[in-house]
Amino acid sequence: MNRVKKFWNKYREIIAHNCTDDLIADTSLIYWQNKLFAASIIYLIPFSIIAVLPGMYVAYKSSLLGLIAVDSLAVIIVFIVAFVPGISVFLRKILFNAVLYAVSTALLFYLGSFGPGLLYLLAITIFILLTLDTFYGYIALALNTLICIIIGLLIYFSSGEILILHEYALDTWIAVSVNLIFLSATAVVLIPILFKGLQSAIIEENNLRSTLEIEQKKLQSSIFQLKDKNEELQHFAYSVSHDLKEPLRMIQSFMELLNKKYADQLDEKARKYIYFATDGAKRMSISIDDLLEYSRVGRLYTNTELIQSYDMVQEVLQILEGEIESKDAKIDIGKLPEINAVPVTFRMLIQNLI
Hints:
Elements: H1 2-19, H2 29-61, H3 65-83, H4 89-111, H5 117-131, H6 134-157, H7 170-261, H8 268-295, E1 305-308, H9 309-319, H10 321-326, E2 338-341, H11 343-353
Antiparallel strand pairs: 1-2
Helix pairs in contact: 1-2, 2-3, 3-4, 4-5, 5-6, 5-7, 6-7, 7-8, 8-11, 9-11
Protein backbone atom coordinates (compact mmCIF):
# COMPACT_ATOMS: atom_id res chain seq x y z
CA MET A 1 0.00 0.00 0.00
CA ASN A 2 2.85 2.37 0.86
CA ARG A 3 4.55 1.61 -2.45
CA VAL A 4 1.38 2.41 -4.35
CA LYS A 5 1.01 5.67 -2.42
CA LYS A 6 4.66 6.61 -3.09
CA PHE A 7 4.24 5.81 -6.78
CA TRP A 8 1.05 7.88 -7.00
CA ASN A 9 2.64 10.85 -5.21
CA LYS A 10 5.70 10.72 -7.49
CA TYR A 11 3.42 10.41 -10.54
CA ARG A 12 1.43 13.49 -9.48
CA GLU A 13 4.58 15.45 -8.66
CA ILE A 14 6.10 14.89 -12.11
CA ILE A 15 2.95 15.86 -14.00
CA ALA A 16 2.28 18.88 -11.75
CA HIS A 17 5.87 20.07 -12.31
CA ASN A 18 5.65 19.66 -16.09
CA CYS A 19 2.16 21.09 -16.58
CA THR A 20 2.35 24.18 -14.34
CA ASP A 21 4.57 27.26 -14.22
CA ASP A 22 6.16 28.15 -10.88
CA LEU A 23 6.89 31.70 -12.08
CA ILE A 24 3.18 32.59 -12.28
CA ALA A 25 1.71 34.00 -9.07
CA ASP A 26 -1.15 32.12 -7.45
CA THR A 27 -3.27 35.28 -7.70
CA SER A 28 -3.34 34.99 -11.51
CA LEU A 29 -6.12 33.26 -13.41
CA ILE A 30 -3.50 31.54 -15.59
CA TYR A 31 -2.09 29.88 -12.47
CA TRP A 32 -5.44 28.22 -11.75
CA GLN A 33 -5.95 27.30 -15.41
CA ASN A 34 -2.59 25.51 -15.31
CA LYS A 35 -3.55 23.76 -12.07
CA LEU A 36 -6.77 22.52 -13.69
CA PHE A 37 -4.85 21.35 -16.75
CA ALA A 38 -2.33 19.43 -14.62
CA ALA A 39 -5.12 17.82 -12.57
CA SER A 40 -6.89 16.79 -15.79
CA ILE A 41 -3.78 15.06 -17.08
CA ILE A 42 -3.15 13.38 -13.72
CA TYR A 43 -6.58 11.74 -13.64
CA LEU A 44 -7.13 11.35 -17.39
CA ILE A 45 -4.32 8.83 -17.83
CA PRO A 46 -5.63 6.20 -15.36
CA PHE A 47 -9.29 6.87 -16.23
CA SER A 48 -8.68 6.68 -19.99
CA ILE A 49 -7.57 3.07 -19.60
CA ILE A 50 -11.22 2.25 -18.88
CA ALA A 51 -12.27 3.71 -22.24
CA VAL A 52 -9.25 3.30 -24.54
CA LEU A 53 -8.35 -0.35 -24.04
CA PRO A 54 -11.88 -1.75 -24.60
CA GLY A 55 -12.35 0.69 -27.48
CA MET A 56 -9.14 -0.42 -29.17
CA TYR A 57 -10.14 -4.05 -28.71
CA VAL A 58 -13.51 -3.43 -30.36
CA ALA A 59 -11.78 -1.46 -33.14
CA TYR A 60 -9.38 -4.37 -33.68
CA LYS A 61 -12.24 -6.87 -33.82
CA SER A 62 -14.06 -4.61 -36.30
CA SER A 63 -10.91 -4.04 -38.36
CA LEU A 64 -11.06 -0.29 -37.78
CA LEU A 65 -7.32 0.17 -38.18
CA GLY A 66 -7.57 3.93 -38.61
CA LEU A 67 -9.28 4.28 -35.22
CA ILE A 68 -6.61 2.09 -33.61
CA ALA A 69 -3.91 4.30 -35.14
CA VAL A 70 -5.56 7.48 -33.86
CA ASP A 71 -6.03 6.04 -30.36
CA SER A 72 -2.42 4.83 -30.27
CA LEU A 73 -1.17 8.25 -31.36
CA ALA A 74 -3.34 9.89 -28.73
CA VAL A 75 -1.86 7.71 -25.98
CA ILE A 76 1.69 8.55 -27.09
CA ILE A 77 1.02 12.30 -27.23
CA VAL A 78 -0.72 12.32 -23.82
CA PHE A 79 2.31 10.58 -22.30
CA ILE A 80 4.61 13.13 -23.98
CA VAL A 81 2.51 15.97 -22.59
CA ALA A 82 2.59 14.43 -19.11
CA PHE A 83 6.16 13.18 -18.73
CA VAL A 84 8.55 14.67 -21.29
CA PRO A 85 10.40 17.67 -19.74
CA GLY A 86 11.44 20.84 -21.50
CA ILE A 87 8.10 21.58 -23.20
CA SER A 88 6.25 24.81 -22.37
CA VAL A 89 2.92 24.53 -20.59
CA PHE A 90 1.18 26.36 -23.46
CA LEU A 91 2.51 23.87 -26.04
CA ARG A 92 1.44 20.96 -23.84
CA LYS A 93 -2.09 22.37 -23.80
CA ILE A 94 -2.12 22.77 -27.59
CA LEU A 95 -0.86 19.20 -28.14
CA PHE A 96 -3.36 17.78 -25.66
CA ASN A 97 -6.37 19.56 -27.16
CA ALA A 98 -5.22 18.72 -30.72
CA VAL A 99 -5.08 15.02 -29.95
CA LEU A 100 -8.50 15.22 -28.30
CA TYR A 101 -9.86 16.73 -31.50
CA ALA A 102 -8.25 13.95 -33.53
CA VAL A 103 -9.81 11.26 -31.31
CA SER A 104 -13.23 12.96 -31.33
CA THR A 105 -13.25 13.32 -35.10
CA ALA A 106 -12.14 9.71 -35.58
CA LEU A 107 -14.90 8.47 -33.25
CA LEU A 108 -17.42 10.57 -35.12
CA PHE A 109 -16.41 9.23 -38.51
CA TYR A 110 -15.87 5.61 -37.55
CA LEU A 111 -18.62 5.06 -34.97
CA GLY A 112 -21.20 7.58 -36.09
CA SER A 113 -23.96 8.39 -33.62
CA PHE A 114 -23.09 5.26 -31.62
CA GLY A 115 -19.80 6.84 -30.51
CA PRO A 116 -19.20 9.82 -28.21
CA GLY A 117 -17.77 12.00 -30.99
CA LEU A 118 -20.26 14.88 -30.77
CA LEU A 119 -20.17 14.84 -26.99
CA TYR A 120 -16.38 14.92 -27.04
CA LEU A 121 -16.37 17.94 -29.37
CA LEU A 122 -18.52 19.89 -26.92
CA ALA A 123 -16.41 18.73 -23.95
CA ILE A 124 -13.19 19.80 -25.71
CA THR A 125 -14.62 23.27 -26.32
CA ILE A 126 -15.40 23.66 -22.62
CA PHE A 127 -12.00 22.25 -21.62
CA ILE A 128 -10.22 24.71 -23.93
CA LEU A 129 -12.13 27.59 -22.37
CA LEU A 130 -11.18 26.38 -18.89
CA THR A 131 -7.46 25.92 -19.61
CA LEU A 132 -6.79 28.57 -22.29
CA ASP A 133 -8.17 32.03 -22.97
CA THR A 134 -11.32 33.05 -24.86
CA PHE A 135 -9.53 33.37 -28.21
CA TYR A 136 -8.91 29.61 -28.35
CA GLY A 137 -12.54 29.02 -27.38
CA TYR A 138 -13.60 30.77 -30.58
CA ILE A 139 -11.11 28.63 -32.52
CA ALA A 140 -12.72 25.51 -30.98
CA LEU A 141 -16.17 26.81 -32.01
CA ALA A 142 -14.88 27.39 -35.55
CA LEU A 143 -13.40 23.86 -35.68
CA ASN A 144 -16.67 22.33 -34.47
CA THR A 145 -18.55 24.27 -37.12
CA LEU A 146 -16.04 23.27 -39.81
CA ILE A 147 -16.26 19.57 -38.88
CA CYS A 148 -20.07 19.70 -39.03
CA ILE A 149 -19.95 21.47 -42.41
CA ILE A 150 -17.51 18.92 -43.86
CA ILE A 151 -19.69 16.02 -42.71
CA GLY A 152 -22.75 17.80 -44.11
CA LEU A 153 -21.03 18.20 -47.49
CA LEU A 154 -20.01 14.55 -47.51
CA ILE A 155 -23.59 13.53 -46.73
CA TYR A 156 -24.90 15.82 -49.47
CA PHE A 157 -22.55 14.38 -52.07
CA SER A 158 -22.85 10.83 -50.61
CA SER A 159 -19.09 10.60 -50.70
CA GLY A 160 -17.16 7.84 -48.92
CA GLU A 161 -17.92 4.75 -46.90
CA ILE A 162 -17.87 6.46 -43.50
CA LEU A 163 -20.53 5.13 -41.14
CA ILE A 164 -21.99 8.48 -40.16
CA LEU A 165 -22.73 9.35 -43.78
CA HIS A 166 -25.27 6.53 -43.97
CA GLU A 167 -26.97 7.36 -40.64
CA TYR A 168 -28.27 10.81 -41.42
CA ALA A 169 -30.02 12.64 -44.19
CA LEU A 170 -28.67 16.14 -44.73
CA ASP A 171 -31.57 17.86 -42.96
CA THR A 172 -31.30 15.47 -40.01
CA TRP A 173 -27.57 16.06 -39.70
CA ILE A 174 -28.07 19.82 -39.82
CA ALA A 175 -30.59 19.55 -36.95
CA VAL A 176 -28.17 17.42 -34.92
CA SER A 177 -25.02 19.46 -35.63
CA VAL A 178 -26.72 22.79 -34.99
CA ASN A 179 -27.26 21.68 -31.38
CA LEU A 180 -23.52 21.06 -31.02
CA ILE A 181 -22.69 24.47 -32.48
CA PHE A 182 -25.32 26.17 -30.32
CA LEU A 183 -24.01 24.59 -27.09
CA SER A 184 -20.41 25.35 -28.08
CA ALA A 185 -21.26 28.99 -28.82
CA THR A 186 -23.12 29.29 -25.51
CA ALA A 187 -20.08 27.97 -23.65
CA VAL A 188 -17.76 30.35 -25.53
CA VAL A 189 -19.91 33.33 -24.52
CA LEU A 190 -20.83 32.42 -20.92
CA ILE A 191 -17.68 30.80 -19.50
CA PRO A 192 -15.44 33.84 -20.19
CA ILE A 193 -17.97 36.00 -18.34
CA LEU A 194 -17.59 33.71 -15.35
CA PHE A 195 -13.81 33.82 -15.64
CA LYS A 196 -13.85 37.61 -15.93
CA GLY A 197 -15.75 37.78 -12.65
CA LEU A 198 -13.31 35.35 -11.04
CA GLN A 199 -10.35 37.35 -12.35
CA SER A 200 -11.81 40.56 -10.91
CA ALA A 201 -12.40 38.83 -7.58
CA ILE A 202 -8.82 37.51 -7.55
CA ILE A 203 -7.41 40.96 -8.38
CA GLU A 204 -9.57 42.63 -5.73
CA GLU A 205 -8.58 40.05 -3.13
CA ASN A 206 -4.92 40.52 -4.03
CA ASN A 207 -5.25 44.32 -3.76
CA LEU A 208 -6.99 44.02 -0.39
CA ARG A 209 -4.31 41.64 0.81
CA SER A 210 -1.55 44.01 -0.33
CA THR A 211 -3.29 46.97 1.33
CA LEU A 212 -3.70 44.99 4.55
CA GLU A 213 -0.03 44.01 4.53
CA ILE A 214 0.99 47.65 4.00
CA GLU A 215 -1.28 48.82 6.84
CA GLN A 216 0.06 46.08 9.11
CA LYS A 217 3.62 47.18 8.36
CA LYS A 218 2.68 50.80 9.09
CA LEU A 219 1.04 49.75 12.35
CA GLN A 220 4.08 47.70 13.32
CA SER A 221 6.32 50.66 12.50
CA SER A 222 4.11 52.96 14.62
CA ILE A 223 4.29 50.49 17.52
CA PHE A 224 8.09 50.44 17.30
CA GLN A 225 8.21 54.24 17.14
CA LEU A 226 5.88 54.51 20.14
CA LYS A 227 8.05 52.07 22.04
CA ASP A 228 11.14 54.13 21.22
CA LYS A 229 9.38 57.33 22.30
CA ASN A 230 8.30 55.74 25.55
CA GLU A 231 11.86 54.67 26.25
CA GLU A 232 13.10 58.17 25.42
CA LEU A 233 10.46 59.66 27.73
CA GLN A 234 11.47 57.31 30.52
CA HIS A 235 15.15 58.21 30.11
CA PHE A 236 14.21 61.88 30.02
CA ALA A 237 12.15 61.56 33.20
CA TYR A 238 15.05 59.88 35.01
CA SER A 239 17.47 62.53 33.81
CA VAL A 240 15.20 65.45 34.78
CA SER A 241 14.49 63.84 38.14
CA HIS A 242 18.18 63.53 38.88
CA ASP A 243 19.03 67.05 37.66
CA LEU A 244 16.22 68.65 39.66
CA LYS A 245 16.82 66.74 42.87
CA GLU A 246 20.54 67.48 43.00
CA PRO A 247 20.21 71.25 43.76
CA LEU A 248 17.40 70.44 46.21
CA ARG A 249 19.73 68.13 48.11
CA MET A 250 22.33 70.89 48.22
CA ILE A 251 19.75 73.40 49.53
CA GLN A 252 18.52 70.96 52.14
CA SER A 253 22.05 70.01 53.16
CA PHE A 254 23.28 73.59 53.51
CA MET A 255 20.13 74.65 55.37
CA GLU A 256 20.66 71.84 57.84
CA LEU A 257 24.34 72.79 58.25
CA LEU A 258 23.35 76.42 58.71
CA ASN A 259 20.79 75.49 61.35
CA LYS A 260 23.21 73.17 63.12
CA LYS A 261 26.25 75.48 63.14
CA TYR A 262 24.57 78.83 63.79
CA ALA A 263 21.48 77.75 65.73
CA ASP A 264 22.47 79.76 68.82
CA GLN A 265 23.01 82.88 66.73
CA LEU A 266 19.66 82.75 64.93
CA ASP A 267 16.41 84.08 66.22
CA GLU A 268 13.10 82.25 66.05
CA LYS A 269 12.14 83.87 62.74
CA ALA A 270 15.39 82.80 61.03
CA ARG A 271 15.03 79.24 62.31
CA LYS A 272 11.47 79.25 60.97
CA TYR A 273 12.70 80.35 57.52
CA ILE A 274 15.32 77.59 57.55
CA TYR A 275 12.63 75.10 58.46
CA PHE A 276 10.41 76.29 55.62
CA ALA A 277 13.31 76.07 53.14
CA THR A 278 14.29 72.58 54.31
CA ASP A 279 10.71 71.35 54.39
CA GLY A 280 10.02 72.87 50.97
CA ALA A 281 13.07 71.11 49.54
CA LYS A 282 11.85 67.80 50.98
CA ARG A 283 8.37 68.31 49.59
CA MET A 284 9.79 69.37 46.23
CA SER A 285 11.85 66.18 46.20
CA ILE A 286 8.68 64.16 46.93
CA SER A 287 6.88 65.96 44.08
CA ILE A 288 9.71 65.14 41.70
CA ASP A 289 9.57 61.49 42.76
CA ASP A 290 5.79 61.52 42.23
CA LEU A 291 6.27 63.02 38.79
CA LEU A 292 8.75 60.31 37.93
CA GLU A 293 6.34 57.68 39.22
CA TYR A 294 3.53 59.25 37.23
CA SER A 295 5.56 58.99 34.03
CA ARG A 296 5.79 55.26 34.66
CA VAL A 297 2.06 54.77 35.28
CA GLY A 298 0.55 52.41 32.73
CA ARG A 299 3.83 50.56 32.31
CA LEU A 300 4.54 49.55 35.89
CA TYR A 301 1.61 50.65 38.02
CA THR A 302 -1.63 48.95 37.10
CA ASN A 303 -2.63 47.26 40.37
CA THR A 304 -4.97 49.07 42.71
CA GLU A 305 -4.89 48.92 46.52
CA LEU A 306 -7.05 50.09 49.39
CA ILE A 307 -5.99 53.58 50.45
CA GLN A 308 -7.23 56.21 52.95
CA SER A 309 -8.19 59.11 50.75
CA TYR A 310 -8.23 61.52 53.73
CA ASP A 311 -4.60 60.72 54.61
CA MET A 312 -3.60 61.09 50.98
CA VAL A 313 -5.20 64.55 50.81
CA GLN A 314 -3.32 65.57 53.95
CA GLU A 315 -0.03 64.54 52.35
CA VAL A 316 -0.82 66.64 49.30
CA LEU A 317 -1.73 69.63 51.47
CA GLN A 318 1.66 69.40 53.17
CA ILE A 319 3.36 69.42 49.76
CA LEU A 320 1.36 72.49 48.73
CA GLU A 321 1.56 74.23 52.11
CA GLY A 322 3.78 77.08 50.92
CA GLU A 323 1.55 77.90 47.94
CA ILE A 324 -1.58 77.67 50.09
CA GLU A 325 -0.16 80.15 52.59
CA SER A 326 1.08 82.51 49.90
CA LYS A 327 -2.40 82.72 48.41
CA ASP A 328 -4.03 82.94 51.84
CA ALA A 329 -6.23 80.00 50.83
CA LYS A 330 -8.49 78.09 53.17
CA ILE A 331 -9.20 74.41 52.55
CA ASP A 332 -11.81 72.48 54.48
CA ILE A 333 -11.80 68.68 54.27
CA GLY A 334 -14.84 66.64 55.11
CA LYS A 335 -15.10 62.92 55.69
CA LEU A 336 -13.47 60.95 52.88
CA PRO A 337 -13.88 57.21 52.21
CA GLU A 338 -11.46 54.37 51.73
CA ILE A 339 -11.06 53.66 48.01
CA ASN A 340 -9.39 51.20 45.69
CA ALA A 341 -6.96 53.13 43.50
CA VAL A 342 -3.41 53.35 42.25
CA PRO A 343 -1.71 55.53 44.95
CA VAL A 344 0.53 57.50 42.60
CA THR A 345 -2.27 58.43 40.21
CA PHE A 346 -4.67 59.32 43.03
CA ARG A 347 -2.06 61.57 44.67
CA MET A 348 -1.43 63.33 41.34
CA LEU A 349 -5.17 63.73 40.83
CA ILE A 350 -5.70 65.38 44.26
CA GLN A 351 -2.66 67.58 43.84
CA ASN A 352 -3.88 68.90 40.48
CA LEU A 353 -7.42 69.38 41.74
CA ILE A 354 -6.25 71.43 44.74
